Amino acid sequence: MKHIIIGIGAAAVSAARTILKEKPDDSVVIVSEDREVYSRCMLHKFISGERSAESLNFINDDLLSGKNIRWIKGKTVTRLDAGTKTVYSGGEELASGDTVLIATGSVSVTPPIGELKTAKNVFGLRHLSDARAIADCAKTAK
Description:
- By secondary structure, the protein is of the alpha/beta class.
- It has a single domain, classed as FAD/NAD(P)-binding domain (3-Layer(bba) Sandwich), CATH 3.50.50.
- It is built from 3 helices and 7 strands; from the N terminus they run E-H-E-H-E-E-E-E-E-H.
- It has a 4-stranded parallel sheet, covered by helices on one side.
- Strand 4 and strand 5 form a beta hairpin.
- The longest helix is centred in the first third of the chain and has 13 residues.
């Protein structure tokens, strides 16, 4: 069987590990908008300078380099055809399989209060790119 997992967080990685442990002949395709694996729980450590981006990676084995796993990085899934179990990014077909797991977690939302959505110093903290933006802004903060 071929399994599609959308997301590269802890739940997605745990699912991939479990699938490949229980069914070593199956294959897994992970699709994520992220290009790096990182612990969202440790983003504050990156902002404070206690950890580098590389040290946020919580996969300490060769999971993503295994022969039965493929990681499609930097792609946002915009459509899922449930009938064919095919995922798309825009008009591009990314992958199809026998099962699809959506393990994308949550997103941060800036409330529609005043100028918050357009302010240069208001951030969500969900992705490593958010942490990088906060750290960069903090360098010149008063």
